[in-house]
Design brief:
The protein has two helices and twelve strands. With about 270 residues, it is of the alpha+beta class. It is elongated and about 120 Å long.
Length: about 270
């Protein structure tokens, strides 16, 4: 029963298609054999839409292929443009990184230049040659010595003004500096902004310790800043030393972080003028 209905529908579709295909032929025949313009005008309203529909059906695959080709071409163009944009972005990022590095170096040089321009009146700039840390001792060598008026006992600071050591030996063209972490270091310091004094002791580790405070009621804590005190007659007063990281340990500049230092040439009263 179902197959009979399907066959009937199929025959109807075939007949309709055949009739639609015959109409244009009939229209052409009338135009040539019996040119009745009123009849042709009436048939045109039927034949032309049918012809257009048949043309659309016949040319649909071709049009579909054309649309697909256009889409493929557009996709290819988009991919090429995407590749060009990626290359442009990579170039821009490389340029940005280069600019960031240049800015950082410029700021560092400007900072060092500012320090050099604002040095104490009597001072010597030197490069760090190498450091030597062994058996609880921490020293480093600098590129200036006795020929530059550098003598044992003089103070060495980093380019940012932080205390980093004391000259212990001086040759003609080099000097040896005892770092703050050296076990023989014992420097008088005070709490910045107060009159609380103490002594900074090196112990051979990366963090020297505070062993004494003049005010027994003072409670040391992390973040407290220390500066030098000249009560021991070893170093000038007021040079930044470091920051406490707990009740006893102090964070200071390590020798292996230094590339350039400044030697302060001060008088017998341990004073230096800017």
């Amino acid at each position: 029963m179902g197959q009979t209905k399907l066959s009937s529908k199929l025959r109807t579709i075939i007949k309709s298609a055949a009739a639609a295909a015959v109409l244009p032929v009939l229209f052409i025949y009338i135009m040539i054999a019996k040119p009745d313009y009123s009849l042709m005008n009436g048939l045109a309203h039927v034949v032309l839409p049918v012809a257009n529909w048949i043309g659309d059906v016949i040319t649909w695959p071709l049009r579909a292929v054309g649309v697909a080709a256009d889409n493929i071409r557009e996709l290819s163009n988009l991919r090429d443009e995407n590749i060009r944009l990626r290359h442009a972005l990579d170039d821009a990022l490389r340029n940005k990184n280069a600019c960031d590095v240049a800015i950082a170096e410029n700021q560092k040089l400007a900072s060092e230049l500012d320090v050099v321009q604002n040095l104490p009146r009597e001072s010597v700039v030197a490069d760090v040659m190498y450091d030597n840390t062994a058996f609880n001792h921490s020293t480093f060598f600098i590129s200036k010595g006795a020929d530059d008026d550098i003598e044992p006992g003089m103070v060495v600071i980093a380019v940012d003004g932080t205390l980093v050591g004391i000259i212990i030996d001086s040759g003609p063209h080099f000097s040896r500096v005892r770092a703050l972490t050296d076990s023989d270091t014992n420097i008088a310091v005070r709490i910045a902004g107060s009159e609380v004094y103490g002594f900074l002791h090196g112990n051979g580790s990366d963090v020297p310790t505070m062993g004494f405070f003049s005010d027994p009621e003072f409670q040391p804590s992390a973040g407290v800043k220390l500066v030098t005190s000249n009560i021991s007659g070893v170093v000038p007063n007021g040079i930044y030393v470091g920051e406490m990281i707990n009740e006893s340990d102090v964070s200071v500049r390590q020798p292996d972080t230094l590339s350039r230092v400044i030697v302060l040439l001060f008088d017998n009263e341990n004073k230096y003028e800017k």
